[in-house]
Amino acid sequence: MADEIKTLEGLKGAVAGAAAQIAQTDAEATRAPVRDTLGRSYATGKRKDAVARVWIKPGKGKVTVNGRDMSVYFARPVLQMILRQPFTVAGVDGQFDVMATVKGGGLSGQAGAVKHGISKALQLYEPGLRGALKAAGFLTRDSRVVERKKYGKAKARRSFQFSKR
């Protein structure tokens, strides 16, 4: 009797696991590509104080940021590498043209915002790429921002220098 109960519980667990997998694949299958009349996908990316508006469309891999080429706007190779990460993870290097406008923050925050926007736009253009981008953590907005300065402090947490006399 105890063996039959264990087998039934095992079967229930297997059925529940299979149902969860089917529900997940159904959710992925029902995702439809989101494209405008020009065949582009749009997404907004954010990082620190920077906000990027990103459009992607099929092309040769040209990336334009604020009307300038990526290598001109982001001169540091590290920032260029950050922008290319979503394409390498998704395995679509050189297949999409990117047009982005970015405001606010510094260059590092702007590069992160464009990367976030590219990842979201890729996932909207081709829903099958969502798994790889999500696993790499590119679809999650990095919510870390600079802490505000408090009164009575030199900076956010640093106290003024103590003087005994």
Description of the molecule:
The protein has about 160 residues and is α+β, with helices and mostly antiparallel strands. It has five helices and five strands; from the N terminus they run αββββααβαα. It has helices at about 1-30, 70-75, 75-90, 105-125, 130-135; strands at about 40-45, 50-60, 65, 70, 95-105. A five-stranded mixed sheet has the order 1-2-5-3-4. The protein is elongated. The relative contact order is 0.16. The mean pLDDT is about 90.
Q: How would you state the average pLDDT, rounded? A: 88
Give the fraction of residues assigned to helices: 40-55%
Q: How many helices does DSSP assign? A: 5
The major beta sheet can be summarized as: 5 strands, mixed
Q: Helix and strand succession? A: HEEEEHHEHH
Residue ranges: pLDDT <50 for 5 or more in a row? none
Assess the beta-strand content as a share of residues: 15-25%
Strand order of the largest sheet: 1-2-5-3-4
Q: Radius of gyration from the CA trace?
A: 23 Å
The count of β-strands is: 5
Structural class of the secondary elements?
Answer: alpha+beta
Distance between the termini: 84 Å
Instruction: Please tell me what the overall shape is.
Output: elongated
List keywords for this structure.
165 residues; 44% helix; elongated; alpha+beta
Summarize the structure.
With 165 residues, the protein is an alpha+beta fold. It has five helices and five strands. The chain has a five-stranded mixed β-sheet.
